[in-house]
Task: inverse folding
């Protein structure tokens, strides 16, 4: 075992995919000699040639649309959007073609395209470099959306995504790029669509993903030490498909749930999770499902981002609001009303 | 410093036939580029394709009026642009059409019913794009330009000498994807040929409000793309120019942009009212440029075509229309559960739950109907 960064795990996954399958192509801005602005494609052009790891013109719609054409010829393009907000010019190609081509053509033209997007904040980045854009993609049928939080998942899920015949929006929380873990690569965790229980607990389930998994685990430690709350942390890993079963089992066990997502909260992924939990676990819940999210503001400038990001204190404050001391209120039951 | 003279289009649209169907002497640059009058067999095939294509187009318009199609964007008047480029394709080539290119698809040998499936409304694409090497008719403007660039590059990577033909209209040249498509094709030296059918209107907006370019063909030069402009109502010139464009791309010299000057004789679709934005005089003027009349006059004059053959092809066209009418009058079977079949290779559990819900609804509906009929 050795210490591997999240970035290195992604680089190794790309390297192994390029080695194993000649139809895999890496395309994007600065992915060649530079190795990408985050160095995720470091050395790939050197080792596989500029024919396999391809610097493209600076045009994201062009990159995504070019990948559509290549997929029509049986290739498996892995495209890099340099930053979350720089992926927006490609939005039409992603939602109108990559997501729909297979359905439009009754399966004749599958789109085995992986769209890698470094996303979310917490890195002191300026505007347009820190968006949590997952909500746009999860709302689009035809796409799978995954977001690994650990180096092992980064490797495994990227390999799964590239091998998938469905298009995958692969969202990389850039605040995690240089975090390390003991991993022996290659490694395989679980297939796309399975959440992981990162910390077992009995009092409350904290459902989270991507950039906030680390914050959730820290909050759980503080909660245990200072408040005696035993917090279970579920890392979704895959937003689409959504692992209802793991989330449901956890909430049924703990009876309380908090959803933690870095994205602005209104009508976002966190709202979907909260709705699913209450639809499925209503009678197991001792308190309403609460959300901790980013503020409903455009991503703030670096010196103010700490106000925006959820953070451990907001998580703990929210857990505290889960009606721990309330007795069941039965005054509105039908018997009481008729009496 | 590269020499841009090889990129620049001819100063005037290439023409080989006059409006009344007489052979005209091509310009010097046109001759240098090798645009010569195609052989009679090829011209006869284009003429036949246009006669059949126009009959198909008229039938599709009629089917729309009868409520069989949700909408139909006609390409009448653009017949030469629809037919000649497609007939000049080789078997290994790919076609990237728009919603206005149904006539091109029929010319390409795709079953007219499968072509009209999109507009009839039983699925988004009725033909097999892989088997026909034809992408689905693209509705968002110019987005298929980058697909064509990518597919053309993919063909080359696969060791094929196939080219990708991308059809767009004049309005689409204002979209970013048109420019990204040209640029990507050029940078990757991809064998893509972009044919702009400049029919003068983007729904109602005239070309003058779309661009200040002296001609749309000049838009290729800035990308290092060889460019040409051609009289789009001259079937002989269309064939000659497209053949040359394919040969250029196929030989590995990179993409080509061709602007065909033509005219949309019908409104944008049956739902549009063209009298709100153009005059009857203007339409009449273009009636005198009819591509079928032009080529037929030439072929008759040259002794390649007689009344018997004209009658024969007319009957062939009528037979195609009759067959189309008959088959389109049958209500197509639709299967609600198919809505779930192609969304994913590996559907999500959530989608399978919804499929089960719809299946149950359908089953209970059937049971109800059975009970009612038993009563």
Result:
């Amino acid at each position: 075992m050795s210490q591997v960064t999240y970035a290195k795990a992604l680089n190794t996954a790309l390297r192994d995919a390029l080695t194993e399958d000649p139809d895999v192509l890496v395309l994007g801005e600065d992915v060649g000699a530079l190795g990408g602005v985050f160095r995720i494609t470091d050395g790939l052009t050197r080792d596989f040639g500029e024919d396999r790891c391809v610097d493209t013109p600076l045009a994201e719609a062009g990159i995504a649309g070019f990948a559509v054409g290549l997929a029509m010829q049986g290739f498996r393009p892995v495209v890099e959007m340099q930053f979350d907000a720089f992926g927006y010019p490609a939005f039409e190609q992603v939602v109108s073609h990559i997501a729909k081509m297979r359905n439009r053509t009754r399966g004749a033209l599958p789109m085995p395209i992986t769209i890698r997007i470094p996303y979310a904040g917490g890195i002191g980045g300026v505007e347009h470099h820190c968006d949590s854009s997952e909500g746009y993609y999860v709302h689009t049928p035809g796409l799978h959306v995954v977001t690994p939080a650990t180096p092992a998942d980064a490797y495994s899920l990227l390999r799964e995504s590239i091998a998938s015949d469905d298009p995958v929006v692969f969202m990389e929380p850039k605040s995690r790029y240089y975090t390390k873990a003991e991993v022996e690569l290659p490694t395989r965790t679980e297939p796309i669509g399975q959440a992981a229980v990162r910390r077992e607990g009995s009092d409350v389930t904290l459902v989270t993903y991507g950039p906030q998994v680390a914050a959730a685990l820290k909050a759980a430690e503080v909660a245990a030490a200072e408040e005696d709350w035993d917090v279970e942390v579920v890392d979704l890993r895959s937003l689409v498909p959504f692992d209802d079963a793991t989330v449901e089992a956890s909430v049924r066990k703990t009876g309380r749930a908090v959803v933690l997502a870095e994205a602005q909260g209104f009508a976002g992924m966190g709202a979907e999770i909260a709705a699913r939990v209450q639809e499925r676990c209503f009678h197991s819940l001792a308190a309403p499902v609460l959300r901790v999210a980013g503020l409903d503001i455009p991503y703030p400038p670096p010196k103010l981002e700490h106000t925006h990001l959820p953070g451990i204190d907001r998580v703990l404050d929210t857990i505290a609001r889960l009606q721990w001391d309330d007795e069941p209120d039965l005054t509105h039951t039908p018997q009481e009303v008729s009496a | 410093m590269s020499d841009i003279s090889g990129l620049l289009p001819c100063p005037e649209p290439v023409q080989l036939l006059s409006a009344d169907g007489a052979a005209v002497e091509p310009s010097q640059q046109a001759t240098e580029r090798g645009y010569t009058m195609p052989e009679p067999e090829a011209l006869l095939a284009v003429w036949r394709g246009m006669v059949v294509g126009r009959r198909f187009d008229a039938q599709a318009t009629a089917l729309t009026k009868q409520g069989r199609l949700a909408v139909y964007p006609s390409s009448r008047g653009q017949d030469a642009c629809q037919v000649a480029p497609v007939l000049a394709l080789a078997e290994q080539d790919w076609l990237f059409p728009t919603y206005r290119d149904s006539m091109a698809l029929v010319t390409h040998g795709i079953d007219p019913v499968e072509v009209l499936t999109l507009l009839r409304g039983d699925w988004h694409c009725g033909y097999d794009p892989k088997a026909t090497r034809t992408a689905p008719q693209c509705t968002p403007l110019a987005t298929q330009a980058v697909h064509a660039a990518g597919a053309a590059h993919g063909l080359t990577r696969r060791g094929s000498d196939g080219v990708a033909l991308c059809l767009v209209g004049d309005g689409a040249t204002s979209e970013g994807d048109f420019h990204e498509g040209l640029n990507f094709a050029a940078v990757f030296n991809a064998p893509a040929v972009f044919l702009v059918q400049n029919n003068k209107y983007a729904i109602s907006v005239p070309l003058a409000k779309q661009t200040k370019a002296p001609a749309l063909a000049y838009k290729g030069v800035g990308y290092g793309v060889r460019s040409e402009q051609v009289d789009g109502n001259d079937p002989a010139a269309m064939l000659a120019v497209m053949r040359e464009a394919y040969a250029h791309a196929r030989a590995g010299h990179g993409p080509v942009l061709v602007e065909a000057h033509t005219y949309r004789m019908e409104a944008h679709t049956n739902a549009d009212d063209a009298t709100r934005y153009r005059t009857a005089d203007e339409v009449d003027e273009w009636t005198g440029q009819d591509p079928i009349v032009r080529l037929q006059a030439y072929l008759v004059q040259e002794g390649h075509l007689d009344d018997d053959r004209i009658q024969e092809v007319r009957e062939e066209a009528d037979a195609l229309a009759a067959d189309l009418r008959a088959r389109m009058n049958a209500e197509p079977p639709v299967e609600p559960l198919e809505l779930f079949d192609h969304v994913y290779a590996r559907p999500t559990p959530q989608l399978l739950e919804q499929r089960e819900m719809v299946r149950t609804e359908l089953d209970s509906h059937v049971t109800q109907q059975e009970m009612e009929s038993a009563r």
About this structure: Chain A touches chain B through 44 residues (CB under 8 Å).
